[in-house]
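Try this one yourself first.
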């Protein structure tokens, strides 16, 4: 083999490795969203409420912001009730949608049990609709 072929082969290997690293870095540089759901008594204006609501929590551990446009649950029957605004609930600070979720931050949206439409909450999964990314599902409630 000539020295030119050897040098070209080495350059090609390093170029492919560099391009792969850049593609991987770019893919993981955006928002990384984790979605969970549970129930809680919210704290509003420093006071614990005795009202029990359910909530969807979204955590962004990525390096870029994400815009949350809506939230909802996926019921065991396959229905997907979706909300484009948080219910006007007593003792809950309102959080308007769409909501810009900054990097390394979280947000919660509270709702009443009526969204489950009589189905078992433990078997449902929360989801959010993100601008430009579509729907993203979370783990089952209370897991």
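Now uncover the answer:
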């Amino acid at each position: 083999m000539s020295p030119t072929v050897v040098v070209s082969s080495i350059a090609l290997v390093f170029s492919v490795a560099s391009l792969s690293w850049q593609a991987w870095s770019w893919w993981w540089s955006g928002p990384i969203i984790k979605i969970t759901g549970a129930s809680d008594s919210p704290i509003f204006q420093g006071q614990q409420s005795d009202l029990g609501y359910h909530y969807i929590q979204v955590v962004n551990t990525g390096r870029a912001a994400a815009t949350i446009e809506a939230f909802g649950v996926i019921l065991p029957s396959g229905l997907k009730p979706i909300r484009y605004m948080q219910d006007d609930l007593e003792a809950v600070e309102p959080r308007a949608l769409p909501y810009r979720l900054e990097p390394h931050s979280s947000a919660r949206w509270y709702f009443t049990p009526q969204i489950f439409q009589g189905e078992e909450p433990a078997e449902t999964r929360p989801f959010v609709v993100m601008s430009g990314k579509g729907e993203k599902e979370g783990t089952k409630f209370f897991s």
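Discussion: The first strand starts at residue 33 and ends at 40. Residues 54 and 113 are 7 Å apart (CA to CA).
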